[in-house]
User: Fold alcohol dehydrogenase (NADP(+)) from Streptomyces chromofuscus.
Amino acid sequence: MTTVSAYAAPAAKAPLERTTIERREVGEFDVLIDIKYAGICHSDIHQAREGWGEAIFPMVPGHEIAGIVAEVGSGVTKFTVGDRVGVGCMVDSCRECDNCKAGLEQYCTQGAVMTYNGVGKDGEPTYGGYSQKIVVDENYVVGIPEGIGLDEAAPLLCAGVTTYSPLKHWNAGPGKKVAVVGMGGLGHMAVKIAHALGAEVTVLSQSLRKKDDGLKLGADHYYATSDPKTFEELAGTFDLIVSTVSAPLDFGAYLGLLKTDGALVNVGAPEEPISFNLFSVISGRKTLAGSSIGGIRETQEMLDFCAAHGLGAEIELIRADQINEAYERVLASDVRYRFVIDTATI
Assistant:
């Protein structure tokens, strides 16, 4: 075992504090990564505060990890020391179910092993990227291409693939009208990726406060959802709506913005249950769906796509002792658009 410094939540809703954790020794197929940067995802806050249910403490959050390979096991073939690599939301899965075999490890029927707030196959809790090092099986590590800074790449490991996956699955591209609900950590990447895919992109945000940013990042149109006229003007407009917000929506109103056979896909997960009238989907043969991150193969595809199109996250780099302040600022929508921890400060 190797002792490394980390930031952890000792209990639900408690401030994160500096501590140490143990990382396993490098096994035959393991990769030891010196973590350079770790993004702060809204998911980290939900879990550290038990918004999504009972959690495991102490908790070291962080599933947007970018770093450098420091050591590899004797059986590793995909990576060598010095490689630029990333780790996303999961670090293992059963590898045997149909979903795993199809490259959809995020939907493993036995349950994927999450990067943190999970339990590994050794029965030990998993600890995430708010730390100096991590040991991960090579099959759950991806390469970060040259051309993307590691700091701007870190949020792609969750925010990037979480939006790329539904955009690809629902065929966003030329001739398609795509709306992105929310202009935050996930939303700003959805705008960039949808634009790069060739879709006509509209941002639906509570206000016009971030309109200039949205247009700069690739949106063709920008509307305020606080204005009732928005829903009248845009009725029946979109082929696909990707909702990135983690607050309950008026789903009837948003479903009304879809064309026949359109889909409203949720990648943000509110803590509260939602309700809607089924006639909102029956009328127009519409789909209300969800999507969760992406498999390892698709995560690599997303990184390669982003590198080819010069896409990285818009970030604010912070020290580790600013994590608790950053959490409050995320909740206040006071970040443009992703906090990234410089792990050298842990």
